[in-house]
From TrEMBL, chains A, B:
One of its GO terms (molecular function) is (R)-citramalate synthase activity. It comes from Pseudaminobacter soli (ex Li et al. 2025). InterPro entries: 2-isopropylmalate_synth_dimer (IPR013709), AIPM/Hcit_synth_CS (IPR002034), Aldolase_TIM (IPR013785), Citramal_synthase (IPR005675), LeuA/HCS_post-cat (IPR054691), LeuA_allosteric_dom_sf (IPR036230), PYR_CT (IPR000891). PROSITE patterns: AIPM_HOMOCIT_SYNTH_1, AIPM_HOMOCIT_SYNTH_2, PYR_CT. Keywords: Amino-acid biosynthesis, Branched-chain amino acid biosynthesis, Isoleucine biosynthesis, Transferase. Its EC number is 2.3.3.21. It holds the Pfam family HCS_D2. Belongs to the alpha-IPM synthase/homocitrate synthase family. The lineage of its organism: Bacteria, Pseudomonadati, Pseudomonadota, Alphaproteobacteria, Hyphomicrobiales. It catalyses: pyruvate + acetyl-CoA + H2O = (3R)-citramalate + CoA + H(+). The keyword Amino-acid biosynthesis applies. Pathway: Amino-acid biosynthesis; L-isoleucine biosynthesis; 2-oxobutanoate from pyruvate: step 1/3. GO terms for biological process: isoleucine biosynthetic process; L-leucine biosynthetic process. This is Citramalate synthase. Residues 6-272 form the Pyruvate carboxyltransferase domain.
Amino acid sequence: MTKERIYLYDTTLRDGQQTPGIDFSVEDKIAISAMLDAFGLDYVEGGYPGANPTDTAFFTEKRTARARFTAFGMTKRAGVSASNDPGLTALLQAKSDTICFVAKSWDYHVRVALGCTNEENLASISASVDAARAAGREAMVDCEHFFDGFKANADYALACARTALEAGARWVVLCDTNGGTQPVEVREIVGKVIAAGIPGANLGIHAHDDTGQAVANSLAAVDAGVRQIQGTLNGIGERCGNANLVTLIPTLVLKPAFAERFETGISAEALEGISRLSRNFDELLNRAPDAQAPYVGASAFATKAGIHASALIKEPQTYEHVPPETVGNRRKVMVSDQGGKANFIAELKRRGIDVPKDDNRLDALIAVVKEREAEGYAYEGADASFELLARRFLHTVPEFFRVNSFRCMVERRYDANGALKTVSEAIVKVSVDGEEKMSVAEGHGPVNALDIALRKDLGKFQNEIADLELADYKVRILNGGTEAITRVLIESLDATGARWSTVGVSDNIIDASFQALMDSIIYKLMKNREMAGLVAAE
Amino acid sequence: MTKERIYLYDTTLRDGQQTPGIDFSVEDKIAISAMLDAFGLDYVEGGYPGANPTDTAFFTEKRTARARFTAFGMTKRAGVSASNDPGLTALLQAKSDTICFVAKSWDYHVRVALGCTNEENLASISASVDAARAAGREAMVDCEHFFDGFKANADYALACARTALEAGARWVVLCDTNGGTQPVEVREIVGKVIAAGIPGANLGIHAHDDTGQAVANSLAAVDAGVRQIQGTLNGIGERCGNANLVTLIPTLVLKPAFAERFETGISAEALEGISRLSRNFDELLNRAPDAQAPYVGASAFATKAGIHASALIKEPQTYEHVPPETVGNRRKVMVSDQGGKANFIAELKRRGIDVPKDDNRLDALIAVVKEREAEGYAYEGADASFELLARRFLHTVPEFFRVNSFRCMVERRYDANGALKTVSEAIVKVSVDGEEKMSVAEGHGPVNALDIALRKDLGKFQNEIADLELADYKVRILNGGTEAITRVLIESLDATGARWSTVGVSDNIIDASFQALMDSIIYKLMKNREMAGLVAAE
């Protein structure tokens, strides 16, 4: 049996941008669209060009290679021609493959929000789709409030969908804008829409999570015949969020109820990247990943000490609904470190460090890593710090230099002219080959001043770190309140294009930053030696 | 038409206890069972007496007044009589109204995990239910892996259910233990179970969220005929969690698809307490509530988009699937650069600030908010800073005190014994009523030291801020690299239980923290005056 294709449409950069607390810069949007494109989604909706300067700037170029790059906007206003509507003009000027128009399909909203007649709204839909097609774009129409509209006036909701298709739209997307529709209702209404002559092959679903059923509503719609799903990474979105693509995709690919009938653009191999995709996205948002997230959460395959654990070790399929590797996640049995040791050996091997299973330095290293992770270190996101720690245990890392002391000072006062002024300064004392060097620097803040002072004079190593750059600096407070523990993650890069991440943890943000800065410099010096084949000679 | 009763069964204290990172003390369990009982749940499962000292201690008394207090445990082992099974004995000694036995119903698990015959397992179910009934308890049986078991061997899964009922169990609960079953499958299998002669009135559903559909699976089961739902507060539970009762209950009570057919023990009035219940539970777990949680999250009725906001203010039902008051939540029109003038007026009104639409200070305020948000301020997460900014524009905020200067210092060095030591110190100079005061403090880091020094001596205001506490401190780096801009969000609370959030932005983390700390103190002083009716007198 040939499988039917389900198209995946990502709206992280548009509906996701409506999440309270989330605001993407152009750089964020570029990074996220690249992640989505590489993962294999069919459509990447980038935003609403013309509505704000960020989105307009983002659409000055096409940002995807494989995925259809999509611009979102409203249908033209009633009473003006398509060519005289400034919103539509901005949309047509945006560099996109596809234009997704949002159109009212609930007559009540046509009256209250648009203040035009039902017929004028249909004419707007038709003229907007025409204009997009004339400009060489694929057109689609998001029917806002479709389900509520259908309950109130089915004929009019259907007329909106039909008008869009007749004008040449590739897709008509049924939106549960307020998010209150139940799966049984979605299934029933989609069935009626298809029975009314609108082909499922042209239908999409856009669900919100206001009753915790955005995923179920999307799947119910697919089961009832729609062939496109709109959703977001990690389910961000207005109010309670949109349908979570990170949850939906593994279900579509792995669960027989769907996998036997449908295929998506995501291969089994690509699916193994979904845990990483989800975590990288949270990292970019600088928020803690949800440990209980389906498929990709740190706890999704975790079993706590108890009746399940021993059975799980003997026969994983007894307590796992899918194998964790299929989604790039891993089993976590919290009662025993047996799985842990094998993981460690594999992680070390990946870095060129071979350790026999019975080497007892390995047990000591595992114990230290567990202890430090309990304190807040996150080695999963700090490869270079993990490698340094391991090499310190298993081989030796040379003490290239030693920081004898540092001092950071931030002073804020009114200057002679009565203007507020804040000055940050750092002083560092370093020993290199027995010689003490003292450096001082000003910076934008205490960490920046410390970083500059630390890298100002490392004697014979100075040339080697000249190309070291801080690419990113992230701070997370691990527990709130006054006893807060701070975790700092630093990403560094050099002229070869290499990137590495280091971590520091302390109740003092300066201390945590210092640890991560030090690890970064030492890692760079170590790598230089390794590349030059000098490690043995040290 | 008389409505059918749905029974709500809470397993927060048992399956919820399996959540990685969550461990309840006896005191926690007492507090939580009181919350659940007061809210109106039908069953409160308290734990597994005999399995660990906490649960055994918790079951030395009956802990609920209205709800049926339920003890969980395994059916008796094969090969011993009920009276010789120590696990069963502990269960019968526990002070409970109901005993919930977990029984294997997948023949594969009977073989692999129990190592007994199918018939011996049925005999254990029967004997265990008998023993509970003989001890005067209501009995119920959780059929573990029921759906996977039914797919593998429907006859045996049904035999387990039937055996439990024939022995006199009030309920047989169909458990999706591994959490991978899809709603379509739940619906189909429940239908077959009822068709096989097991009455829906005796059936319950126990769903896990491994595909993000625990709520949908529970509702599909109800629709197909079961009359009891097991779940937890805020969806905690093993791996991805259990069905979230906080999401399920409003849907059952408010959504016509269910409310027209069913009733629960939760009245419309009690339902208004559900947001508080959810937040109090997170408070007890000491974790930040999920802002996007359906019905009860801080963002569940929040609107950021300008186009939605004006319609929302005119006619809330246009963009709300249920009225927020019905679940004790509230509408939130976000102040953000996406929102329009209507947002602003509504937000100001909510804070008791009335501004006419044509007041041109309003336009100036909107311009300043937009400019500051472009710099990185996030007023939607910092209510108190927004209110202060607005009041400064529209009325006046007294200058209670003035910070003339501050200095923070962090020093790290080796002490006389060669141990590393980091010291953080801050000095603050403040003018109150023309008198300069100088305070110095040490802290865990520079921000902590600054906070302590700042609040050490504010002269006549000192008593007023004695109960001010930092509840949370968050840092976000808005753009990576060395030119990073830092945003600090601070949540404060006082003895009245009031909480407020303030924001600071700067390229210097100390400066950003200082702004947020200052806003917090000034907001508190302003609120004190407002409550005392003194604003006019200032």
